[in-house]
Amino acid sequence: MGRLLFRVAAGLAVVIAFFWLLSVVVGLLIWGVAIALVVGVVVLGVRMLRAESGGAGR
To answer: Could you give the residue ranges of the DSSP H alpha helices within the chain?
Structure first.
């Protein structure tokens, strides 16, 4: 009985650790996508401002 309880507890710990790691990876991916979107919007805004100013920087 003790050995079975240990196996169940070990399996539960592995499942919890797996889902915790998965949530960390997904969270990092979401942060990366959010940062990339912000950088893309800023770069696009700078390009539009330069284009509207008559291309003085070229």
So the answer is: 2-52
